[in-house]
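dude i think i finally got it to work??
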Amino acid sequence: MQGSYRKKHKCKSGNAKYRSRAGKGLASLTVRARPGNQSQGLLVAGNVVFPCALGRGGISANKREGDGATPLARMRLLSGYFRADHVSGRRTRLRMQPIAADLGWCEVPMDRNYNRPVRIPYGASHETMRRDDRLYDYCIVMDWNISARRIGRGSAIFFHLARPGFTPTQGCVAVTERVMARLLPLLSDRTVLEVRR
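look at this
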């Protein structure tokens, strides 16, 4: 899994019949912090608003590795993963693939695979994607520090499932499984998630 993220992640997308039924889908999702709680937010999808969890560090315009902040940015949704042993691969126009037992995500800024998927065991510090909890039952990779990768600007910024009570993430955006199931058919690799203050 080393090398180009884009080249290595060719996955199946929804079929053409479903794509035409779903129409154009969502061009954008907008996230803002909830007043009085920097680690929770409101996600706007079309004309519907959903609660979401944000990073423990709130929203930051100067995102750094390990700060726990959600980046203040426009991030395109690239592709995603799902836990095939927990959920079905829902119909979506995003490329989705099952999370393999050996899938990790490198989080060491000086490693050549920083902010890239890796096979574990791996020599540098990494996140295990096949988690014991259910946060990554659906996990969508956002284009933060991927297309233009910079050392120390943050890794593994995903759109995934939230813990009960919307407790803070490590910098990601997280929603309930029910909300994710509602959104997935409307998402594609043209959808942009914008985090605002």
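Residues 16-22 form the longest helix (7 residues).
im so relieved honestly
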